[in-house]
Amino acid sequence: MPKETGEMRILDAGDSETSGESVTPASGAKLETKWPRITLVTAVYNGARYIEDTIRSIVEQGYPNLEYIIVDGGSTDGTVDIIRQYEEKIAWWVSQPDKGVYDALNTGFSRASGEIMGWLNASDMLQNKGLFVVGSVFAELAEVEWITGRPTKFNPAGMTVKVWPVPRWSRMRFLAGANKYVQQESTYWRRRLWETAGGKLSTEFRAEGDFELWVRFFRHARLYSVDAFIAGYRAHEGALSSSNMERYDGTCDAIADRELQSLSGARGAKIFRRISRLVKPIPKVRGLWQRAAMRALYGVPGADWPPVIEHGVERWEIRK
Predict the structure, then answer these.
(1) Cβ distance 34 to 22 under 8 Å?
(2) Burial of 99: CB neighbours in 10 Å, binned 0-12, 13-18, 19+
(3) Helix (H) or strand (E) holding 131
(4) What confidence tens digit (pLDDT) does each residue in 58-113 have?
């Protein structure tokens, strides 16, 4: 049975909602997938405006092996009251002061028992059956260590208003300055990659901790894109990374520079970044560089791109 201690709640591992057995969806068709346990963490502080949408997008998925954790930073706006309404569906939650969003996420992940891991911010949402996409991809493709879905955007009312093409990812292109906006909401990874990469998020950054984590993940595994909807971010005035994009981009560039300098090779990526810095103060040259070189780095196919994961007739397939 659930146990409560102050603002904390723990769900026993043996509770039926975390069984991981095959499930019957609304269509009535039996799914034979043995669903891996997914740990999903949400960090929130005074997020009453959107947190219920976020929670419902997760707990109403019906995913049979979910461990959902919420870490609240001591909200005073009614957020905790909303969390309590859903605590029967939450594996563990706490309301306590923290040192920022990445500190809160580390608190949540320190409790995680899932084989698959990810987080969803307190205004963002999963797409319909997004967790089933995640669970089935990892269940069927043992060689895949981390994935990201089609990037999508919600408006403040929660409507999907933007869907981007399937992105392609390469470590060196990422460090050179292209394809750097990996949509965190749609990105999930195996626990072994998390542990190999250090097992925690850096608390050094205000909004760039996800970028720094991707840098560490890229040291050990290729990022595969899945041609499917997993989640999306909500565009609103209080969004952390969009509140000062110039600072965000500058900090990400510094993280990438630091990583490149630690590599003995990567000559092309280093040259590319050097040129980008040189042309940045010159508007006309910067525009030409963006239109020509940077777009090519984003979109020209190459051997460094991993294939895209697409769904075939019955299962996920890695398409060359």
Answers:
(1) yes
(2) exposed
(3) helix 130-140
(4) 999 999 999 999 999 999 999 999 999 999 999 999 999 999 999 999 999 999 99
Beta strands in 18-88 (DSSP E): 38-44, 66-72
d(CA 221, CA 212): 15
Query: Mind listing the domains of the chain with CATH numbers?
Result: 3-319 (3.90.550.10)
C-alpha–C-alpha distance, residues 196 and 163, integer Å: 32
Q: One-letter amino acid identity for 124?
A: D
Rounded Cα distance between 223 and 187, Å, is 9
Residues 6 or more apart from 24 whose CB is under 8 A from it? Answer: 30, 31
pTM of the model: 0.88
Quote the CA–CA distance of 174 and 193 in Å, as a whole number.
Answer: 18
- Check residue 100 and give left, alpha or beta (phi > 0: left; psi -120 to 50: alpha): left
**CA-atom Rg of the chain in angstroms:** 20
At 5-39, the pLDDT tens digits run 334 444 433 343 344 555 444 334 444 569 999 99
